[in-house]
Structures are given as C-alpha cells and as structure tokens.
C-alpha cells in the first residue's frame, strides 16, 4: 500500500464485511477502528446476529416461499409506506446473495431461524449463527480480516475527516490517533461504517426526544461521525428521527432479555400488574411504550417452557445466569416475588390463558399466542433502551453517499447506521434484522462499486 489503500473502511462492525468483499475483489484495504478490542465500539457485536435473506437456499431447503418482492412488501407494511422504496428494493434483492456469500466466502456458520418468527416478517427469513449473538460474528470477521493479505488494520484510531480534491472526489482519509495526532492517508475511496449517533446525547435529545431518557444499549463510538463528515462534504441526510428501540433490557443484569420470550407466549405488565398493549407488534416501538408507563419499567411474565425455548439465545442465557429472573409456583407467589399487585397480575395470567386457548379475544388485539402459560411462572424486570439510530446519510444503489440533488460524492460510501436505513420514521418501522442488513448489505455493495471504480447517480428521494 505504498501509494495508499484502494479503500479505507472506517468502522470494524459490518464494515469488516465490506473490507473482506473488497479484498476478495482485489482491492488493497485499510480498516480503521477506534476500539482495540473490536467489541464496545460497534452494534454488530451487541446484536442477536439476525441476517434477513429473502429467497435464500436455506429457505428453499426448508420449503419457505420467500422473495425480495415479499420482503419489500413486509418493509412497506411495517413502515406504513414511509421507507425509502429504492433502498428497500436494493437491500431486499441483495439480502439472499449476502447471506450466501457470508456462509460460502466468509464461512460464517449461518442457518435459518425456524423455531419462531419475528414480528413483521411474513415468513422465517432471518439467518443466524450458533448462540445467536453478534460477538461471535465480529470475532470471526476479525480473524478473517487479520489473516487476509490485502487488508491492513489500524487500531486504535478513528476517522476524523475525509479530504476531497478540486473535483469533489475523495482523495484522502484523515485519521486521528488516541494521542490527538492526525495523519492524512491517500485513498480514492472511503466507506463510512461508523454507525449512527446513539452515543451522542445531544443528537439523541434533538432527533429522538421520546427515547432520550432511556438506557443506551449500543456501541460507545456511535457518535455521529458520519453525519459530521458527510455533512461537511455536502451530503444529503434523511430519516434522522428513525431508531431501533428495545423493550426487553434487564437493568439488573445489563443484558438483553430478548423478544423471543414474548413470541413464545410471554407478556408484559407495568408496575400496576396490567398489560398495556399488543406486545407482538414489535420490540422497537415497545421501548417508547414502556418509557411512557409509570417508572418507565415493566415485567416480562413467562414460564418454564418459554424459558427453555429462549435458551438458544446467548443473551437470554446470560440474563438467566445473572439471577434476575424470579420464579414462583402460582400467581400469588409471583406477585410477592416481584412486588407487583397480586389481583391485577392474577387477572392478567387468567385472561391471557383464556385468550391463548381461544376462548376469548385479546383486549389489546394480540393474536399470536403459542400456548397458555403454566406454573411455575417466572418474571424479569425490563426497561426501555435505545439500540441504534436508523437515520443518516442518503445513499444510492451502490451505497454511494449522495448530495441533495442525487449526485454522488465520488469515492464516498456509507453503510449501517452511518446511512439512512429502511425503517421509515420513528421506531415502529423497524423490522428485526434491518439493522444488520444495511450494515452488511451496503458495505458489500460499496465494495463492489469501489472495485468497479464508479458510482451511479440516481434520483434522490428526500427522507426528511
């Protein structure tokens, strides 16, 4: 790399997939990462490692009828038609090739998740790794990147800026080291894979006031670097009010309890012992709903069968091992163990059991009940959390960052939370896996475009 790398990737989360794809295509790649441990700084390592793939070979083998068209329809339904339709189509079409490439070229041990289906996906289309935790994905990608002769890693360091030439094209990456010194590294292409702005309290309060008081459960380096750098180069931005929340983080353990508890038949009550909505609409929007309840907290109620079904998730196992689940042989005992009012809690257990048996409709409109809960019961206290933001720089089908008129900033790409995603506005449009899909999918597409040495101008759809 005597003349500088062909591509500089800022961020070693999903950006590592872009680096590996670019190296596979013959480019010399430099990856810049602020976290020397490759864990705290990115949301991939904190995720449940769910990769949507519409029309993948695993789906075909399982007899699941899926397609990009069906995926786009689900995105459209979940977002109420507010998602960037062009980008949704692009990512839906690359989703299956992406997961197959991750399995075949990167050798990630992916398989189709069929034991339950997340809210909003019409069919099982999420693929994951054993343990269903992103830390193993990051560990695997890091090993692959370190071993690749075409990839160099610069750690710890962060991208401070991107320098452009008189023609507006990228000419260098400006890197800042922990001691404050800076270095300009010549390159013709930069991929901003630095996530969003979830760790910047001021930006969160400005764009996401409804969730600003919640726990931030994301990468500590997600400080809006891409917005700052891209904005300085005249990039268009959109959907800055979009985010992925979560309604199932244990404050006692600091872990993700997981929404599989709900999908398998659990339910959520507030401190008054009452349910307050249809939990299966989605875990992202439920964060703000819990935040609006008394004391901004709730309890997930489950049983031994649900507990055992959720043990496929490392996050849930970590939660259990922390000791925050409480158990009881009946409703009265559970009320005593949790401190919840006994009569409302017993009433909700009886009502949900009747609904699950098909004896009565649910007052909140929930129709997804696997079975009635049975004693012994368990419960765990949860608080709302902000996981990551879903708005950012507008990109085209090549993941190239564009200006407000739709023309690309030559050589500048964005992926994941650095780019505006496909979740529409607010939290309700988030579909499980649609954080990792833009993170890995756009990085994959950016690598291909950088290898071709071109970006394609496309009409710009304003996102704000």
From TrEMBL:
Cofactor dependence: FAD
Top-level EC class: oxidoreductase
Keyword Flavoprotein: yes
Any GO MF annotation of the entry: oxidoreductase activity
Residues spanning the signal sequence: none
EC number: 1.3.5.4
Keywords carried by this UniProt record: FAD, Flavoprotein, Oxidoreductase
Keyword check for Oxidoreductase: yes
Segments forming domain FAD-dependent oxidoreductase 2 FAD-binding: 6-424
Domain of life: Bacteria
Protein name (record): Fumarate reductase flavoprotein subunit
């Amino acid at each position: 790399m005597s003349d500088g790398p062909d591509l500089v990737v800022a961020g070693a989360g999903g950006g590592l997939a872009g680096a590996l794809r670019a190296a596979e295509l013959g480019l010399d790649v430099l990856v810049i990462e602020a976290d020397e441990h490759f864990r705290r700084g990115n949301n991939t390592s904190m995720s449940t490692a769910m990769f949507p793939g519409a029309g993948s070979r695993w789906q075909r083998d399982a007899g699941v009828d899926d397609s990009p068209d069906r995926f786009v329809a689900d995105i459209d339904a979940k977002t109420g038609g507010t998602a960037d339709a062009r980008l949704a189509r692009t990512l839906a079409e690359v989703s299956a090739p992406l997961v197959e490439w991750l399995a075949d070229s990167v050798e990630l041990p992916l398989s189709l998740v069929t034991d339950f289906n997340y809210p909003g996906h019409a069919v099982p289309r999420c693929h994951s790794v054993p343990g269903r935790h992103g830390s193993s994905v990051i560990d695997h990608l890091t090993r692959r990147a370190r071993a690749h002769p075409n990839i160099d890693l610069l750690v710890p360091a962060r991208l401070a800026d991107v320098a452009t030439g008189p023609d507006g094209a990228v000419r260098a990456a400006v890197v800042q080291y922990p001691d404050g010194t800076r270095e300009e590294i010549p390159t013709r292409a930069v991929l901003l894979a630095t996530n969003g702005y979830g760790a910047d309290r001021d930006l969160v309060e400005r764009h996401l006031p409804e969730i600003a008081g919640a726990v931030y459960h994301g990468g500590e380096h997600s400080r809006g670097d891409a917005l700052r750098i891209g904005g300085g180069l005249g990039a268009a931005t959109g959907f800055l009010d979009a985010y992925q929340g979560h309604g199932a983080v244990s404050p006692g353990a600091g872990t993700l309890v997981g929404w599989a508890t709900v999908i398998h038949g659990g339910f959520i009550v507030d401190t008054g012992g009452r349910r307050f909505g249809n939990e299966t609409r989605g875990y992202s929007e439920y964060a703000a709903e819990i935040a609006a309840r008394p004391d901004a907290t709730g309890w997930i109620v489950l049983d031994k069968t649900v507990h055992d079904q959720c043990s496929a998730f490392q996050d849930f196992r970590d939660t259990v091992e922390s000791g925050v689940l409480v158990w009881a042989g009946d409703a009265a005992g559970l009320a005593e163990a949790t401190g919840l009012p006994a009569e409302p809690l017993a009433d909700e257990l009886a009502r949900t059991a009747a609904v699950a048996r098909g004896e009565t409709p649910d007052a909140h409109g929930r129709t997804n009940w696997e079975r009635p809960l049975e004693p012994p019961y368990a419960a765990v206290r949860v608080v709302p959390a902000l996981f990551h933001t879903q708005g950012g720089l507008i990109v085209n089908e090549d993941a190239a960052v564009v200006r407000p008129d739709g023309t690309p900033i030559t050589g500048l790409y964005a992926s994941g939370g650095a780019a505006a995603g496909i979740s529409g506005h607010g939290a309700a449009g988030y579909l499980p896996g649609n954080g990792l899909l833009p993170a890995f999918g756009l990085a994959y597409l950016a690598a291909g475009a950088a290898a071709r040495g071109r970006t394609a101008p496309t009409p710009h759809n304003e996102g704000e």
